[in-house]
């Protein structure tokens, strides 16, 4: 075959989640960007919630996309800072997360309403099978940093999550994180 890409190398800072050199534009998500994903309205709309550092490649299933995510500590209402969460647009596409720093959890859900909550910590590898929506949540006091690699043509379906939510919420309790049923799941 005639190769489509040339090889490349970048240095990943295992604590900060940054690439040197950067491979693509950093995506920034503020509280305002997450309006409708948290139960409460954003109290500080301009405040940074997370950044995604991508290593873009063609969006074809012969390629492997990867990125790091840095999710700040914080809450909106009782809910810990979290990513929007998504199904892959091509539903059966899978993904791997590797925890680099901080303390978090990965909330997963199927279209028929099953859910799982898995830990994200330094050195942990999470496998996200096709068909499972996924959202990461920072339940600690430091940034949560993880690396993700996924099938190139997976794409992202955020609209289903914005409409239906996840079956459970991860909230700050008196003695730490509490996972509760989401009263607004699939209104
Ligand atoms: C991509 C992968 C991650 C997320 C990132 C931000 O498939 O799951 O790179 O994109 O953690 O989350 P979200 O839900 O805003 O894309
Ligand atoms: Zn994904």
UniProtKB/TrEMBL annotation:
Pfam families assigned to the protein according to its UniProt record, in alphabetical order: GPI
EC top class named in words: isomerase
E.C. number: 5.3.1.9
Domain of life: Bacteria
UniProt-recorded Gene Ontology molecular function terms: glucose-6-phosphate isomerase activity; metal ion binding
Keyword flag Coiled coil: no
Glucose-6-phosphate isomerase prokaryote domain location: 58-164
GO biological process: gluconeogenesis; glycolytic process
Signal sequence extent: none
Cellular component terms per the entry's GO annotation: cytoplasm
Catalysis: reaction(s): alpha-D-glucose 6-phosphate = beta-D-fructose 6-phosphate
Keyword flag Metal-binding: yes
SUPFAM superfamilies for the chain: RmlC-like cupins
Transmembrane feature ranges: none
Gene3D superfamilies: Jelly Rolls
Pathway: Carbohydrate degradation; glycolysis; D-glyceraldehyde 3-phosphate and glycerone phosphate from D-glucose: step 2/4
InterPro entries: G6P_isomerase_prok, GPI/OXD, RmlC-like_jellyroll, RmlC_Cupin_sf
Keywords, comma-separated and alphabetical: Gluconeogenesis, Glycolysis, Isomerase, Metal-binding
Family as reported in the entry's similarity comment: Belongs to the archaeal-type GPI family.
Protein name per Swiss-Prot or TrEMBL: glucose-6-phosphate isomerase
Organism: Jiangella aurantiaca
